[in-house]
Amino acid sequence: MRRTCLTVLFVASTLAPVALSGNTAGGGIFRSERLPLPPQQSGRKDLSAVTAPTGWNKVDAGPFSLFAPQGWEFHQLEGIDSYVGEFVGDGITLRFDFGEYSSGYVKKAKKPTYVMARESIGGFVAKIVSPRTPGHGVTGIYFRNVGHSNGLFLWGQDLTSEQQELALKIFETIRFGGKVPRYVVPPPPPPNNAQ
Question: pTM for this structure?
Answer without folding.
Answer: 0.69
